[in-house]
Amino acid sequence: MFLIAGVQPKTRRVDDQPRRCPACGRMQAYTTRVDHYLSLFFIPLVRVKQGERFLLCEYCGRPMNTGPSPEPAAPLSGTDITCVACGKSFDRSFNYCPHCGQRA
């Protein structure tokens, strides 16, 4: 008889409120954490360790350490720049157009 058990990580989204990614400027970063679960036959059963919260951008995939409780991003303050690729306006603080991804 075989028994396959172990501890495996599981990534969980903590908050569904999108935040601005500091790296790419898109509003696709979410508060996430990696919890470790005791698994039996690759099925997670019991959480062994709760991970620290961090910000993970779904567009660029970069994790950012934000501390225990990240602050929500400020709403776009105005239409300061017009994108040369798509023609839509966006905030001057972005490095990339949030609509099409063109570098500002």
Automatic annotation (TrEMBL):
Q: Which residues form the signal peptide?
A: none
| Domain Zinc-ribbon: residue ranges | 20-101
Q: Output the InterPro entries linked to this UniProt entry.
A: Double_zinc_ribbon, Zinc_ribbon_15
Q: Which domain of life is it from?
A: Bacteria
Q: Name one Pfam family in it.
A: Zn_ribbon_15
Q: What is this protein called?
A: Zinc ribbon domain-containing protein
